[in-house]
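quick one
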Amino acid sequence: MHIFAIANQKGGVGKTTTAVNLSAALAARGQRTLLIDLDPQGNATMGSGIDKRGLEKSVYHLLVGLAGMKEVCVGCEAGYDVLPANRDLAGAEVEMVELERREMRLKDALAAHVDDYDFVLIDCPPSLSMLTLNGLCAAHGVIIPMQCEYYALEGLSDLVNTIKKVHANLNRDLKVIGLLRVMFDGRATLGHQVSAELEQHFGDKVFKTIVPRNVRLAEAPSYGIPGVLYDKSSKGAQAYLDFADEMLERVHTL
Ligand code: ATP
Ligand code: MG
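structure w/ magnesium ion:
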């Protein structure tokens, strides 16, 4: 069983798209998969076809101890389970500060049932907040989606330093699984330059799969369907299916 946090404190870099589509692609490959929405925006919830406005119990309740994992968990049509979230989760950020083992709330809440799954993916919010910290403490590894832009590398060192600190102080299991190049525009010279730079600096920590910019991936959330199912033959869908295969290979080496 593998628990991976999908994190990058920069906003709009493709975390949720990666979380939803990797979940759907792993499920399509027969893997028992759980997706945890750890973002009050609730985009992974909506993108999985679950209405965030109608939730009786959500990750908020899980983190503050008002519900157990089984009460929060819902299945989605794409064949994976979801721990859904909505704006309530912003409140957890504040309330958790007062609670015991505040960084470990998610890890503790998952402990009893996490072995029911082959993969658990955590969609983190765009910040290095207490929520993200909970994601990093619950995980064995981090997948970092990034756009190959000039500023992409700038935020990366903050994230890598945070991961190092969490590894040193809170979670000895944590490591960077890999960097995933997303929204790649093959026509832009800069994209190729930054991509090559990433490979130079991070070597085989850079996933081989490159997810192209693809409008079908961007359209899918408005239908509440992961891109890999919305248009399976699209370049974006194929890339995430390839990424799932690369992930299945890579976990053998962990
Ligand atoms: P946030 O930081 O707000 O949580 P995020 O990092 O989760 O954002 P996404 O929501 O996945 O990022 O993506 C941001 C936007 O880019 C969305 O509108 C999404 O549909 C679009 N997008 C993501 N990946 C691609 C892609 N490969 N091709 C085209 N559009 C994409
Ligand atoms: Mg997101």
